[in-house]
From TrEMBL:
Keywords: DNA-binding, Transcription, Transcription regulation. It comes from Streptomyces lutosisoli. It comes from the Bacteria. Gene3D superfamilies: Winged helix-like DNA-binding domain superfamily/Winged helix DNA-binding domain. It holds the Pfam family HTH_5. Residues 218-289 form the HTH arsR-type domain. The keyword Ubl conjugation does not apply. InterPro entries: ArsR-like_HTH, HTH_ArsR_DNA-bd_dom, Metal_resp_trans_reg, WH-like_DNA-bd_sf, WH_DNA-bd_sf. This is ArsR family transcriptional regulator. PANTHER family: ARSENICAL RESISTANCE OPERON REPRESSOR ARSR-RELATED, HTH-TYPE TRANSCRIPTIONAL REPRESSOR CZRA.
């Protein structure tokens, strides 16, 4: 049974993040071991076809060789630093041969990037849920619901998936990072530029590949299908760029529709660093729940 011991400064420095680089490497593992990832079956079928393409197979060979031999270095998946990380920012922190970075980039573009808006929305929804839980119930309750194998004992986090001799954060804090392709929890050691990170499976993974009309016909008739779809996609915090990618609308159209929805009190907005995130208000959420 492994454990991580926390000090006072570690507990107050809990934060959340996501890692497109980590998801890319984990997704490659999932494509090679589909039996452990039945929840992603529809994506795996497409990924398996990509693995059979000669050109992509050649470009991803350095990554494939490491994954198949179980020799992926920890340095290839450094702990994420913020919720808005971009894969190129993360690749810039990875030491090693350029050909490995090129292999990761090739797999990202072919297998992950086309689906990233949906993945990111799921991860953002998980972070929003955990953040509310942290504010309402405290960190002990957050840890209690991250994964069935995790439990909080006194000043330490205990799990069979944690290393037996895992060093504590030692005042640096801990990053909690939901993931799409994880099947259990994993601890990433701090690398000097970021504190340690605890990876855990995100909530509601079974909904990721569902295809459904997010806005009912009644709501679409009331406000127009484009606005109804935008409102549905703001169930988790989303930027105009993300909403455009999910709906197929232009950035200009998304901005105009969001202005109308915001003036009607159906969405709220808040700025985080350089991005503005839109979220359905209580009234907007009530409309989405209505039959």
């Amino acid at each position: 049974m492994g454990m991580v011991r926390f000090g006072v400064h570690d507990v107050v420095n809990i934060r959340f993040a996501m890692s497109p680089l980590g998801e890319t490497v984990a997704s490659f593992r999932a494509a090679l071991d589909p039996g452990r990832h039945a929840v992603h079956l529809s994506w795996i079928k497409k990924a398996s076809a990509l693995l059979g393409e000669r050109g992509l197979a050649q470009r991803t060979a350095p990554l494939g060789d490491l994954v198949r031999r179980g020799l992926v270095p920890d340095s290839l998946t450094p702990p994420p630093r913020c919720p808005l990380s971009e894969i190129e920012e993360e690749l810039a922190r990875v030491p090693g041969p350029a050909e490995l970075g090129d292999a990761v980039r090739a797999w990202w573009r072919a297998a992950v990037e086309p689906h990233w808006p949906g993945m990111r929305a799921l991860l953002e929804a998980d972070i929003a849920h955990r953040t509310r839980q942290l504010a309402e119930d405290g960190i002990q309750e957050v840890f209690a619901h991250l994964h069935p194998t995790l439990r909080w004992e006194g000043d330490r986090l205990v799990s069979p998936h944690l290393p037996l001799s895992a060093p504590g954060p030692e005042g640096a804090g801990l990053t909690l990072a939901p993931t799409v392709f994880a099947v259990d929890c994993r601890l990433l050691a701090g690398d000097g530029t970021a504190p340690p990170a605890l990876l855990y499976p995100a909530r509601a993974l079974g909904t990721l590949w569902e295809r459904r009309d997010l806005a009912g016909d009644g709501l679409a008739r009331l406000m127009g299908r484009s606005r109804a779809q935008l409102l549905a996609h703001t169930s988790s915090p989303s930027t105009t760029t993300q909403l455009a990618a999910r709906t197929g609308l232009s950035l200009g159209a998304v901005s105009q529709h969001l202005a109308v929805l915001r003036d009607a009190g159906l969405v709220t907005s808040h700025r985080y660093r350089r991005e503005v995130h839109y979220t359905a208000s209580d009234l907007g959420a009530a409309l989405l729940r209505s039959p």
